[in-house]
Amino acid sequence: MIDKPIRFTDGAGYDRFMGVWSRLAGQKCLDWIAPKPGQRWLDVGCGNGAFTQLIVEHSEPFSLVGIDPSEAQLAFARQHPLLRSVDFVNADAMALPFPDDAFDLAVMSLVIFFVPEPAKGVAEMVRVVAPAGTVAAYAWDMEGGGFPYQIVSETLSAVGRPAPMPPSIESSRLEVLGDLWATAGLSDIQTRAIEVKRSFADFDDVWNTILGGPSAGQAIAAMSEEEISGFRELLRARLQPAGNCPISLSGRAHAIQGTVPDR
Ligand SMILES: C[S@@+](CC[C@H](N)C(=O)[O-])C[C@H]1O[C@@H](n2cnc3c(N)ncnc32)[C@H](O)[C@@H]1O
Question: What domains can you pick out in the chain, each with its CATH number?
């Protein structure tokens, strides 16, 4: 692991790298939460709006606010035609700029492991969601091999150029998520694993996807031309050991939801 933080500086590059995955897992998470229409939603760490888009398309929200500290991500979300009615605010999950009980649902989609103090982030979601409302999250099972680009991370480590990692990866463990939700006072806590798969046309499709995204893209950008070509060939050999063919990658996320009790 390198100590540089993951930078979210390109909403379009993020969309190809992670937005596609976010929507695959997010759809399963939304189906599982099964929200009623007409709710006041908060999308915490909304990024470029990948999951926000699903809420608009499938959950008939009464209102929808997305917060994120990355202006580049928010700029991409704000220009999305489907998201014109969404209120996007630059803010931190650990200090939400909203009064108590302002929402019916708060969700973190692929965010909890980016929050330096996850317990503070969960406590903030509980504070701003009204009693009987829902607080939910899903996160890649980072320590159990669920990150969809795990093979890319392992190959970067093999060439001595590990990718930057989120600061709180332990929070993606199911038992840690359960503890966080219980400690925050949520009731009716439920968890589940979500499995998703994505196909890439060929190796160049994977390569261009990771180059434009955060994390692996940052690690590759710091390499010399010679290092890049050695890494590229090693990754190709690992992804296509039998020669050129479509590539399929899988991800596994842990999801959790709980209900805000009466206060
Ligand atoms: C992997 S992206 C997920 C974005 C989006 N929710 C999705 O599903 O695609 C993680 C996001 O968390 C945001 N983030 C990082 N630290 C945060 C914090 N302290 N509070 C809120 N969001 C944060 C990043 O800016 C980034 O947009």
Answer: 11-259 (3.40.50.150)
